């Protein structure tokens, strides 16, 4: 199966190529970058030297020959490619925010008009699997909403308030350097940002509504000096107190058949490079603390995108994604 990656010079694109090396049937045949057309992929992603001789191409939608295309491009760019690729019979997984929200919510949150809107399955497979199976297009969720939603989903019905507090690694911002990601500002430091206004809260609220929760949802992110990973502490305030045994049973039952969700103490480095989401919960009566850890570039982006491709194309859901994390 031929795979194209639009935006392959970025972090998520590079990670797609790395992970797909281990897929039983998918072969990356086209990688794009506008700035680096003609340049060998391994010049930008030296970790892939010896595994591929692909060169970057310009992202010309008419020239892309593939069965599946991943859009690993910024929001507003994906909407320029998605419809055209679909009309040529190419299945698409979009890693950007362009198709995650309802049109009016997207336009309000991102402050731009949507020029090619259509409704798409929201690809957290653990919650939306039946919509992703055989789909032609899946919108891959944001990294924060993935870890946060998986942490709180089992308690969605019981909560009146959910407060997500997340710590993220710097690769979440992509490979474009900025003052925020400049080493002296990040290294040996921890800093909050967008305390009440991060765009991803819209996805978190949408997911709680999908789960028929009436909980009010809040979110504050922090940047920590690691390259990869998101650790989310969800403070889940319940209508009625719940004992530790009962909460644990709820989580075990909810994720009983989920390969990628493990019930154990979340350690950022233990999920690094893998598609796993580690979760644990502790009860303080009517406050439950649920903590999750994911790799923002894998379960938070490229790994989950491949999980979705597998569902769309009829492969085993974990094909290409069985690698363990990298502790320490
Ligand atoms: N980083 C994460 O942890 C993470 C997690 C979840 C989701 N995402 C989402 O995944 C997408 C990619 O993220 P990233 O971190 O990999 O970003 P990145 O490192 O900045 O890479 C962006 C890629 O898109 C290409 N690109 C930019 N504008 C384009 C356009 N108009 N048309 C075609 N290609 C374009 C870039 O190459 P050229 O400019 O040379 O074409 C580059 O290859 C974003 O939407 C991001 O929000 C990222």
Write the SSE topology.
Elements: E1 2-6, H1 11-20, E2 27-32, H2 41-44, E3 56-57, E4 68-71, H3 82-87, E5 91-94, H4 103-110, H5 125-132, E6 137-139, H6 143-152, E7 159-168, H7 183-186, E8 191-192, H8 201-210, E9 216-223, E10 230-238, H9 244-254, E11 261-263, H10 268-271, E12 277-284, E13 287-294, H11 298-313
Parallel strand pairs: 1-2, 1-4, 2-3, 4-5, 5-6, 7-9, 11-12
Antiparallel strand pairs: 7-10, 8-9, 10-13, 12-13
Helix pairs in contact: 1-11, 6-8
The structure holds NADP nicotinamide-adenine-dinucleotide phosphate.
Short description:
The protein is of the alpha/beta class and 328 residues long.
Q: CATH top level of the largest domain?
A: Alpha Beta
Which of globular, elongated, flat, extended, rod-shaped describes the shape? Answer: globular
Widest beta sheet: strand line-up: 8-9-7-10-13-12-11
Helical content class: 25-40%
What order do the SSEs take from the amino end to the carboxyl end, as H and E? Answer: EHEHEEHEHHEHEHEHEEHEHEEH
CATH superfamily of the largest domain: Dihydrodipicolinate Reductase, domain 2
Largest sheet: 7 strands, mixed
The computed structural class is: alpha/beta
Evaluate the radius of gyration. 19 Å
Number of strands: 13
Distance between the termini: 35 Å
**What percentage of amino acids are in beta strands?**
15-25%
CATH topology-level name of the largest domain: Dihydrodipicolinate Reductase, domain 2
Which segments are poorly predicted (pLDDT under 50) over 5 or more consecutive residues? none
| CATH hierarchy: architecture of the largest domain | 2-Layer Sandwich
- Distinct small molecules: NADP nicotinamide-adenine-dinucleotide phosphate
- Provide mean pLDDT, rounded: 98
Count structural domains.
Answer: 2
User: How many DSSP helices?
Assistant: 11
């Amino acid at each position: 199966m031929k795979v194209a990656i639009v935006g392959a010079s970025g972090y998520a694109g590079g990670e797609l190529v790395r992970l797909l090396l281990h897929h039983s049937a998918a072969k990356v045949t086209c990688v794009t970058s506008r700035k680096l057309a003609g340049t060998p992929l391994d010049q930008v992603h030296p970790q892939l030297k010896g595994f591929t001789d692909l060169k970057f191409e310009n992202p010309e939608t008419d020239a892309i020959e593939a069965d599946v295309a991943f859009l690993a491009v910024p929001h507003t760019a994906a909407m320029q490619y998605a419809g055209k690729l679909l009309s040529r019979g190419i299945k698409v997984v979009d890693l950007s925010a362009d198709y995650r929200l309802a049109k009016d919510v997207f336009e309000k949150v991102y402050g731009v008009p949507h020029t090619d809107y259509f409704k798409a399955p929201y690809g957290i497979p653990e919650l939306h699997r039946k919509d992703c199976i055989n789909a032609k297009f899946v919108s891959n969720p944001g990294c924060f909403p993935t870890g946060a939603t998986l942490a709180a989903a089992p308690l969605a019905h019981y909560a009146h308030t959910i407060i997500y507090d997340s710590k993220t690694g710097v690769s979440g911002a992509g490979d474009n350097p900025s003052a925020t990601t400049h080493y002296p500002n990040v290294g040996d430091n921890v800093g909050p940002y967008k305390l009440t206004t991060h765009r991803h809260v819209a996805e978190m609220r949408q997911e709680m509504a999908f789960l028929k929760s009436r909980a009010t949802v809040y979110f504050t992110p922090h940047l920590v000096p690691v390259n990869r990973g998101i650790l989310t502490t969800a403070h889940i305030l319940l209508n009625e107190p719940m004992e530790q045994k009962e909460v644990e049973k709820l989580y075990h039952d909810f994720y009983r058949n989920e390969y990628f969700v493990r019930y154990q103490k979340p350690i950022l480095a233990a999920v690094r490079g893998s598609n796993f989401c580690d979760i644990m919960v502790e009860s303080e009566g009517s406050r439950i603390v649920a903590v999750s850890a994911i790799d923002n570039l894998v379960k938070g982006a490229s790994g989950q995108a491949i999980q979705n491709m597998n569902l769309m194309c009829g492969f085993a859901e974990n094909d290409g994604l069985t690698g363990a994390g990298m502790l320490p």
